[in-house]
Amino acid sequence: MLSVSGIPTGYMPMLVVFVSDTPEHHCKESINSTYNSSRIGPDSCSQYKQNDSWKETEELSNDTEQCLDGWVYSTERYTSTIVSEWDLVCENAWKVPFSTSLYFVGVLIGCLICGHLSDRWGRKPVLFSILFLQAVTPLIQAASVSWIMFCILNCLRGLGQSSQNIVSLTLGTEILRKSARVTFSSLGLCGGFGIGYALLPAFAYFIRGWRMLLVASAIPSLVLLLFWWVIPESPRWLLQKGRVEEAELIIRKAAKMNRVPAPDVIFRTGEPLELMQNKHEEKQKYTYMDLIRTTNMRNITILSSIIWISGVMVYTGLSLNTSNLDGNPYLNCFFSAAIDLVGYVFIWLVINRAPRPTLLFTTMLLSGIMLLVTLLVPEDMHVMFLVLALMGKMGSTAAYSFAWVFSAELMPTVVRNMGLGFSSTASRISIIICPYIIYIGIYSKMLPYIIFGTFCIIGAAVSMLLPDTRNSKLPDLISEARPIRRYCCLKEDQQTTQMQLQAENI
Question: What is the reported pTM?
Answer without folding.
Answer: 0.76
